[in-house]
Amino acid sequence: MALEEFFEKKKRLYTQAVKGQFRNLKWILNITFLSIYCLSPFLRFDRGPYASNQAIFIDFSNSRLYFFSIEIWPQEIYYLAGILILAAVLLFFITSLFGRVWCGYACFQTVWTDIFILTEKIFQGDRNARIILDRKNSFEKFYKKFLTHGAWILISLATGYIFVCYFNDAFILTKNLLHFQINATALGWSLGIAASTYIMAGFAREHVCTYMCPYARFQSAMFDRDTLIITYDEKRGEPRGKLSKDEARTQGDCIDCKQCVVVCPQGIDIRNGLQMECIACGLCIDACDSVMDKIGLPRGLIRYDTEAHMQSPKTQNKFRIFRPRFFYYATILLTVSIIMLYNLSHKTTSEVSAVADRNPLFVKMSDGSVRNGYTIKISNKTHAEKLFSIKLIRPIEAEIKIESYSGASLEKLPVAAENIANFKIYITLPQEFLAKNDEENNDEEESNNEENNLINLSVIDQTSGEEKKLDIIFVGD
Ligand code: SF4
Ligand code: SF4
């Protein structure tokens, strides 16, 4: 069976430009989102001399993620999981209330497709002019297509370039680009993102929303009868029929002009009911409202409304924000936000851990005492050098020594800004103590045995006075 038999043949859409309140809102949001996308990597935030001053920066080479004053280290990647959960719940929240407004107004596929369609209109004209142009083979067609694709390629390259600015210092990258010294990784990613923008916004367009985006498939699970959707008022519009000069019009208000169809970026007819392809952009509302204005009928034949209100137009069925779903989602959102904020505001500026030597596990000394070696890892997450000290808390019989290098002592452990330092320490327990411990271990339960073998250390940040407890297991004969 040929592959084509499984798929509907791609029809070329010639969307017509439309004017109206939703189109204006879409332009305002497009400009806002594009400005945020393009300008964000160039914003600066002072973090001192040891860290990047780019406000939003994904620094792969140093494994850091910067967002203004928030700085996430690899071991704190759970914050990223929290942010993603928050974004997903927010998306579900908005969808359950207002339908697919994310798709219609904010999704990058919608925003870039809008820009590409506008470029097409600037160089080739509106819908009818484009249809006529595509039918002929002429020099006019060639140069208009050439200009359109040239502009698309430039927009795509700019999109790809801005994308890599989030992963590099935007100003240095731009300076290097002007000197034709852009590195191969940045160049490869820029071209990759540019190619995908060109294909998705220039050619794939509505097919991305219909076939590629998983969100279109499961969004209906978030809808209920009170969700705001784009609806055609069938009771008012049907039976549809052409406008005639006949005074006694017996048909419905829809004059079957198909303006709502030709402006639709998804190429659907909303008069056939709510469809999976509809991205709730509202352009069909603008088209129909302007038709209604021209023929002197009230606006709103196509409108944002709820299924419940369309079926039974009572006041209690009108769209309400405050309904049970609002409170479920708001509770989840608020809870996750509070947890995230609490954790972010209580982030520690240092972390301490210990790794015991494996080879050998312990060393028996000539006087019968036993020595264990450990590597103490101290991370300094601030942008200035810090001094730490290590203090033995328990047992008092233990002797602690540090391998002396780079001027480090137990009282003075320097850790450079934004760095992790390793310090080698040795703990020795005398023979008598170990023998007594062994006796106790034989008499006591297993849980107490572990406690007897524990060494309690304290690592103190000498700048902030912050103290971290470190429990390490001592291995004996
Ligand atoms: S049917 Fe209307 S709201 Fe839905 S995608 Fe088409 S124009 Fe946008
Ligand atoms: S734009 Fe309005 S009047 Fe024209 S076909 Fe669509 S629903 Fe009917």
Describe it for me?
The protein is an alpha+beta fold and 477 residues long. It has 3 domains: 11-78 and 95-221, no CATH class; 224-324, no CATH class; 350-473, Immunoglobulin-like. The protein contains 17 helices and 14 strands. A hairpin with a 5-residue loop joins strand 13 and strand 14. Helix 2 (78-98) runs antiparallel to helix 15 (324-345), helix 4 packs across helix 8 and helix 16 (431-443) packs antiparallel against helix 17. The mean pLDDT is 89. One iron/sulfur cluster (SF4) binds at residues 237, 254-260, 271, 287-288, 291, 301-302. One iron/sulfur cluster (SF4) binds at residues 230, 264-266, 268, 270, 278-284.
Bound molecules: iron/sulfur cluster
Shape summary: elongated
Mean pLDDT: 89
CA-based gyration radius: 33 Å
Counting copies of identical and different chains, the oligomeric state is single chain
Total helix count?
A: 17
* Unreliable sequence segments: none
Q: State the secondary-structure class.
A: alpha+beta
Features:
477 residues; 14 strands; 3 domains; Immunoglobulin-like; binds iron/sulfur cluster; elongated
